[in-house]
Design brief:
It is a single chain. It is built from no helices and 21 strands. It has strands at 11-14, 17-20, 25-30, 33-38, 46-49, 60-62, 69-70, 86-90, 97-100, 103-111, 118-122, 125-136, 141-144, 147-150, 155-159, 165-168, 176-181, 184-187, 197-199, 203-206, 218-220. Strands 5, 7, 8, 10, 12, 14, 15, 17, 19 and 21 form a ten-stranded mixed sheet that branches. The chain is globular and about 45 Å long. The termini are far apart.
Length: 225
Amino acid sequence: MKLKRSCVFASVLRAGKKQSRRFGSTQLLLGASLITLVGQQVQAQDLFWDPKVPDVSPSGIWNSADLDWDQFSNLGGTDQTWVAGSIANFQQVVGGTVTLVGTQTVSGLNASSPDASNWVITGGSIALQGAGGVAAGAGDSLTVASDIDGAAAAQALNFTSGGGTVIVSGDIGSNVGTVTSDATLTLSGTNTFSGSLNVNSGTTTLAGGAAVADTSGLNLTGAAT
């Protein structure tokens, strides 16, 4: 029997099958037997930024209560609150400033607009889980002024190539392990990530003396600069 991936959030019982959405576990109810499978994960869902206040600007407040997200890229779905662990997508034609309240848990950040846009994520903090990918689309820039850390220890942080520029001026904390870059990236915060910085391709700029801790390694491969 082939099982789909699952993760934490809800419990569903249908047609004799009970899926317990826990981090890395699935339960199947077969007759009188309950089988629990562990170590499986589901791909994080995409949510698309669609702030309602103000409704003429893509800038806004990112918290856990406001209905500022949509499950569809055309923003034609039902308005909903942020779901912890989702991938945050910012794609309006004009960029803006998104101010975090508290700590928001994400599996990735993507800024990709039809035209060149500048996005700024500021305030609060970001707790990474899952793939931990951050990218800016061609012609776009994404500045993350918020602090970034892992939701758990040794969390990967991957800056992927989208054709744009990513600037991280917030601090990257010690729960982040290996940082990998295939992008045009600038790190300028006081960073304490516990692993090495692996630059596989693209251009990575280290601004200031604390962008990489003395205890972290720096590895350049391929066409990286």
